[in-house]
Design goal:
The chain is mainly β. A hairpin with a 4-residue loop joins strand 5 and strand 6. The chain has a single domain, classed as Jelly Rolls (Sandwich), CATH 2.60.120.10. The longest helix is centred in the middle third of the chain and has 10 residues. Helices cover 8% and strands 42% of the residues.
């Protein structure tokens, strides 16, 4: 599978990137905010570039000061409370391969985020060597490559992605899809898993 990913020839919705050794793209990441337009609707705006050519330094045996600072400020024991709809940790949103992710909670044991997949967006096939990952489908339909098999999920379905098993996520429909992701355990030193997420 890794060889096929390296040979893949397609146009990315996010512009040019190359695949890292863990199967995730090496690409730029941006701090974004949600802003109200003059017509009263909301849009995502880029505040600044946070990482350039990010390739998951943990998996490459490196340490990145920016990641360490963010983790020290956000790795904590869970506290009782409610994370409201449309809210994330410290107002952070991520844009990854055209999707919008909003982190909902983060402890050393697990991590969750809300994701919006516009039509045609996808997460390329990859593996999480240290975590199990789950998706609870809220809206729309997502197609999956699960350990070599093609599957699909709709609202109310729970998708289980075991550690060490290859998987990819695709919105092949003409409608947006929304899902709640979570991973467990949350390994120390990694923002989410063996993948490129952004703050």
């Amino acid at each position: 599978m890794a060889a096929a990913l390296k040979k893949a020839d397609f146009t990315s919705l996010r512009g040019g990137f190359k695949f890292n050794t863990n199967g995730y793209p090496i690409q730029n990441f941006y701090l974004t905010k949600v802003a109200k337009r003059p017509d009263g609707k909301f849009q995502t705006e880029i505040v600044e570039k946070v990482f350039e050519n990010y390739g998951d330094p943990l998996r490459q045996g490196l340490r990145a000061g920016q990641l360490n600072d963010w983790e020290e400020a956000n790795m904590k024991d869970e506290i009782a409370g409610i994370t409201r709809a449309n809210e994330g940790i410290q107002g952070i949103t991520w844009n990854i391969l055209g999707q919008t992710y909003v982190p909902k909670h983060r402890t050393e044991h697990s991590f969750s985020w809300h994701a919006t997949f516009p039509p045609g967006t996808f997460v390329p096939p990859h593996i999480h060597p240290d975590q199990d990952e789950y998706l609870y489908i809220l809206e729309g339909r997502l197609d999956f490559m699960l350990d070599g098999a093609d599957e699909s999920a709709t609202p109310g379905d729970l998708v289980r992605l075991p550690m060490g098993k290859p998987h990819g996520i695709f919105n092949k429909s003409q409608q947006g899809a929304k899902t709640l992701f979570w991973v467990s355990p949350h390994p120390a030193g990694s923002m989410i898993c063996s993948g490129p997420f952004t703050i």
